[in-house]
């Protein structure tokens, strides 16, 4: 069948137009799908138990010397916590860092090797000089 299009310029021209229209239609459909989605492609991970991370952040922030806290939990195949990363203001102090580690280890019954605590970068807000 393709050899018929090579010999007849009118059929060849018609076939090329049909192919071009199909490609343009596909591009329009794909761009419509992309531009009408409400998400940006990233997935938000939500705990089945209602937010262990936010609860843990709240508790850890109450420890003396700790300021703002963020945590990330890693789960194993049995949905048990297997690792924790903590970023906290005040974690530069070894006593505060140790207290954070002990609290996380106690809550999840995991070893010290499964917990990492880092000092959280302090973002200073620019003060406006409006008078």
Architecture overview:
The protein has 131 residues and is of the alpha+beta class. It has helices spanning 2-7, 9-36, 52-61, 94-108; strands spanning 69-75, 81-88, 115-119. Strands 1-2-3 form a three-stranded mixed β-sheet, with helices on one face. Strand 2 (81-88), helix 4 and strand 3 form a beta-alpha-beta unit. Mean pLDDT is 81; it is low at 40-46.
What labels describe this entry?
single chain; 131 residues; alpha+beta; 3-stranded mixed beta sheet; 4 helices; 3 strands; 45% helix; elongated
Main pleated-sheet profile:
3 strands, mixed
Rg calculated over all Cα atoms: 29 Å
Helical percent range? 40-55%
- List the helices and strands in order: HHHEEHE
* Termini separation: 81 Å
Helix and strand content put the structural class at alpha+beta
Shape: elongated
Which regions contain 5 or more consecutive residues with pLDDT less than 50? Answer: 40-46
Secondary-structure map:
Blueprint: H1 2-7, H2 9-36, H3 52-61, E1 69-75, E2 81-88, H4 94-108, E3 115-119
Parallel strand pairs: 2-3
Antiparallel strand pairs: 1-2
Summed up:
The chain is α+β, with helices and mostly antiparallel strands and 131 residues long. It contains four helices and three strands.
């Amino acid at each position: 069948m393709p050899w018929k299009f090579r010999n007849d310029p009118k059929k060849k021209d018609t076939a090329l137009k049909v192919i071009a229209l199909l490609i343009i239609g596909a591009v329009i459909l794909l761009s419509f799908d992309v531009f009408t989605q409400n998400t940006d492609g990233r997935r938000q991970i939500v705990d089945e138990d209602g937010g262990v991370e936010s609860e843990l952040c709240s508790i850890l922030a109450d420890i003396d010397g700790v300021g703002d806290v963020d945590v990330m939990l890693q789960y194993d195949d049995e949905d048990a916590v297997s690792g924790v990363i903590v970023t906290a203001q005040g974690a530069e102090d070894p006593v505060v860092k140790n207290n954070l580690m002990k609290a996380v280890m106690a809550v999840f019954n995991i070893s010290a090797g499964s917990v990492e605590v880092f000092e959280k970068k302090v973002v200073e807000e620019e003060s406006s000089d409006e008078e």
